[in-house]
Amino acid sequence: MFQGASSLSLDAKGRLSVPTRHRDALGATAGQLTITKHPHGCLMIFPRLEWDRFRERIAALPMQAQWWKRIFLGNAMDLEMDGSGRVLVSPELRAAAGISKDAVLLGMGSYLELWDAATYQAQEAEAMQAEMPDVFKDFSF
Question: Which of 47, 65, 106, 141 might form a disulfide with 61, Cβ 3.0–4.6 angstroms?
Fold first, then answer.
């Protein structure tokens, strides 16, 4: 289970150092990960077992979802964490998410989201100013 936010910087080669607190969970799959696009403009990073479950659900969608299948499955890349806990984010995926150097890694339960830091801050501020969705109307804090 992934949770929490980490501010990170990608190195000149586009490698991301995975925070230590997430390495154990990712290491359970021998450091095998899958990364793909998210429709909100970030990247999703899955441990391989979670990716397999997600991929099956996406692949089972009807023909009306063909473009979403392309977005999720067609852009997916398998990665392996190196001995130093780093993963190489491809130039194509970095460009798709607008990530050049400063990034935010968010734990989202079964997967991680990787955001360009400025984009995340702007979208979070916008969300905080908006009204809460109806699903929170009966939610108790």
Answer: 65
137 inside domain: no
Which stretches of the chain are DSSP H helices?
20-27, 48-59, 66-74, 91-97, 117-129
pTM to 2 decimal places? 0.92
Q: Between vectors from CA 98 to CA 8 and to CA 38, what angle results, nearest 5°?
A: 90
Q: What is the CATH number of the domain that holds 62?
A: 3.40.1550.20
CB-CB neighbours of 36 under 10 Å? 22
Query: What average pLDDT does range 10-19 have in this prediction?
Result: 95
Q: Which tokens sit at 64? A: 């009306």
In a domain, 90, yes or no: yes
Query: Is 80's pLDDT higher than 80?
Result: yes
**Number of domains making up the chain:** 1
Name the band, by pLDDT with cuts 50, 70 and 90, for residue 31: confident
Domain extent, residue 78, equals 2-130
51 lies in some domain: yes
